[in-house]
# Entry
Amino acid sequence: MDKKLSYVIVLIIILILLYIFIFSNYYIGMGYGTSMEPMTGEGDLYIYEDVPKEDIDIGDTIHFESQCDRRDNILHTVIAETDEGFITHGYNNDNPDQLYNFEDGLVDEDFPCEAPVKEEHINAKLIYIIDNNILIDIFSYFYYKIY
# Structure
């Protein structure tokens, strides 16, 4: 493959991605932390879709604003739904984010930080994960083909 064709392919891919993320309800983000391992890890790219609360089911992974730290966003899986909101859990964590008491239907008072995730705190639903190793392989391929 010659250099011009490689440049054209990279440019087309970038333009398609820009179009998708500018003119649609899709978002892209990058992962950090270990709470969702082995499903996802540091540096993975996420593709999110902005969906209404009615389209979120148990087992879906959502991106939401933390109630503990307003500067932080969390990507965890919905494990239950209550009248107060969603109960979420990171695969690699020992307990749900809310330390929810399923028998009483109450949030544990000893851990008041994360409340059930309300609709207004949900940013989007995870629809696809791009492993960071794949990204490195793709960029390496084009780098060596161009140079």
